[in-house]
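Researcher: First entry.
Model:
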Amino acid sequence: MSDRKPDGRDEDAESFGRLVEGVRQFSEQVYPERRAEFQRLASGQRPHTLFITCADSRVVPEMITQTDPGELFVCRNIGNIVPAYGEMLGGVSAIVEFACTALDVSHVVVCGHSDCGAMKGLLYPDDPGLRRMPTVASWLRNAEAARSVVEVMRPGLEGAAKVQALVEQNVRTQMQHLRTHPAVAARVAEGSLSLHGWVYGIEDGTVHTVDERGGEPVPLGRAAGGRPGQ
């Protein structure tokens, strides 16, 4: 049985109309003003950073980093997850390999965010909503190590505080998974690739860096040179 409101179709039409209007504004106003930039990009891309983040609609990498087209190679999925190499070869692994080998990016950012629904699902696997999504539940197993760490190291946490702790630990876990990918391991070993862990606060617009080894997150601006990671 559907939970849609009787006027749902009108709302859908209005939402899609906004997309169409946005395309019109881009074509008629934005593109002409930046024509030279897009024509330059038409012949190829040279992004400096692979940005791995959640598919959550509230997270907009280019807005958060104030970057232009062609700067970020973006990978989005539920929970900003990077399966360890060989565990689940597929889209994410291919993106990582392509970014580090073909595009020769200099940085990889794993960016989690506050109020992450994926982390809530990981904490509460018996939730009826998650039970209706077996593919999502299977995907979240790639973050199970993060949940285990939080349960052992932060046993007194509950509610939103526990979700936030898991958001942070999941970033560390996915950075560790990244290092199992041959394309990443080789570049890190030769010193040509830096890994960075970030957590974006939707409610206040802040970005904190997460040290892979642990400790409290630090505001990005206070991190050494603003460029944590190695």
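Researcher: Second entry.
Model:
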Amino acid sequence: MLDSSAACTRVFTSCSKSDCAYQSDFEQDVKTLVQAAEESNMENRVFYWMSRPCGTWCVREREVFLQDSEAYHIWTHYEAMPEGIRAYRVVVTGRQDGRIIGDVFPLHYREQVQRVIRSALPIATVEAAYPNGYIARMDFDEWEQCHGRLYERYGRPERIRYAPENEAELTKQIMLEHRFQKGWKRKPRTKTPNPPSR
């Protein structure tokens, strides 16, 4: 069990020494983790965090595995230029003595981002909650066409939740990714021997 903010701070500090991170980015990341401690749904407490040569990003793990989400585009944007990127999975578990606590798992970004690209699922539906209490639910294609008009009418959404066609498949892909992160490897497929000829 680690103090999530402290763990990220150590990584950030080591990057700052070589002028490769922005303090304002990190402050926003810490704010995101603090807010996550108040979430009742565990899917909103698990993040991928990266330090890159020009700043940091903190995005929800679930959204990283949904194609066309902002988190997916952020996380995969650097797949052709992984040098200098430090990446982690951060799980916020709660508070202790006034601090945010959780677990921090290092990721090998070069390999991990390729697995994300191969296993991410298309977004099927979107649910957006607005400050006045209005909740919009629609297909992703419709959302792409009208989210600007919704913003003009209701303001910035307080929460957006993307969903695939098959939620169980998304959970399966994320759980499989956790196994890879722990060092699991797929067994090579063996060729099925031909049945004996008569």
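Model: Note on the second entry: The chain has a mean pLDDT of 86.
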